[in-house]
Design brief:
The chain is α+β, with helices and mostly antiparallel strands. It contains 4 helices and 10 strands. About 7% of the residues have low confidence.
């Protein structure tokens, strides 16, 4: 997970074994990954970016740490005969501070039939294997490097939801009323935090 139960418990001054807290931290992690369209955690990913018939493709997961393999197949089968032999012309920015999802082909493109290669303008025609993402705090074998601004906002969300939900495990549906106007507190919190994390959205 991108944040830990213990660090949220420390902010709240409650026991990390609290069942509601554990549920909210887990749901915050899942919410972030679902809402922002990426997993964030450093791992090997097999991705299927759309080609646009030019020199670049954009991946859901970044920062790209290493490029392992590219396969190009307009039929979407991706057999071993579709592996790109030479990855040297394919460049990416490995700097985690830039969080760049781009792979750029620096060689000479060419047409194969009606499609421009190596990134034909087709859906499900490109398969890319990369190592990408950041080490989460739960990864004890490596130094955690998930961006602090991302982690701070997710901790904030978990703290707010714990304080507002109490023991109500249906916190996403709880509403408050002020005069003639009603709104869902939790949706407002989510919308604000998503705006503040817009740079991470895919």
């Amino acid at each position: 997970m991108l944040i830990t139960v213990q660090e949220v418990a420390d902010v709240l001054g409650v026991d990390a074994s609290d069942a509601v807290l554990i549920r909210l931290v887990k749901s915050t992690d899942e919410w972030a990954k679902r809402s922002l369209g990426r997993r964030f955690e450093r791992a090997e990913y097999t991705l299927y970016p759309r080609g646009y018939g030019n020199q670049q493709i954009f991946l859901r997961e970044s920062p790209i740490r290493s490029l392992i393999e590219i396969r190009v197949d307009p039929t979407g089968v991706f057999g071993d005969d579709t592996i790109v032999d030479d990855l040297t012309p394919f460049k990416f920015d490995p700097d985690p501070d830039n969080d760049d999802p781009t792979i750029t082909y620096t060689g000479y493109g060419y047409f194969r039939g009606p499609a421009w290669w190596p990134f034909p303008e087709l859906k499900n025609a490109i398969q890319v294997k990369v190592e990408a993402g950041w080490w989460p705090p739960s990864q004890t074998n490596h130094t955690a490097d998930v961006p602090e601004d991302l982690r701070e906002k997710l901790i904030e969300r978990a703290v707010i939801k714990f304080r507002e939900a109490g023991d109500d495990l249906n916190e996403e549906m709880q509403s408050v009323r002020s005069g003639d106007r009603s709104w869902t507190k939790f949706e407002q919190t989510d919308q604000r935090i998503l705006r503040e994390l817009l740079r991470y959205k895919r």
